[in-house]
Design a protein that fits this description.
With about 160 residues, this protein is mainly α. The chain folds into two domains: about 15-90; about 95-165, no CATH class. About 55% of the residues lie in helices and about 5% in strands. The chain has helices at about 1-55, 60-90, 155-165, and strands at about 90-95, 100. A two-stranded antiparallel ribbon has the order 1-2. It is flat and about 75 Å long. This is Zinc ribbon domain-containing protein.
Amino acid sequence: MSLFKKIKESALSAADKAQQTVEITRIHAQISGKEKEIANLYQQLGKRVFDAYVTGDLQSAEPNIAEYSGKVIEIQKEIEVLKQKIREIKNEKQCECGTTVPADALFCSSCGRKLETPAKEPQSNVEGADDPALCAVCKNPLEAGAKFCVHCGTSQAAAKEGIGE
């Protein structure tokens, strides 16, 4: 009976992941469309500025510059909202340095910055103290290539140097 339960759970998990993938793909398509809108606005803006240059009256392009730039900024904001939706679906958040980290991370794995939304306290894993995939201080698992622990914020290079002393 447990075999059928495992199969059912696996099927539900696969269905959830497929649904997430479809949603993320749909959002990526929206982002692509918005990026094309921006490229079109840049092209229109360039044409207006060039036309103003040819006529010798660059000031005549100023209203167009403000109008098109405002539209570009609005679309960039819309793109950021869509990217945030993707991070939510993937259960991730973004550090100020631009690195994407798990939503439950307390510190950025790239720059070590303390993240604003603290999650539940990490459970310490005392076993495997010398395991390179574990933080040298709190013994929680590290992300691949992490320079800093997402749980305690410790620089792994500095912590490993301290262990060797």
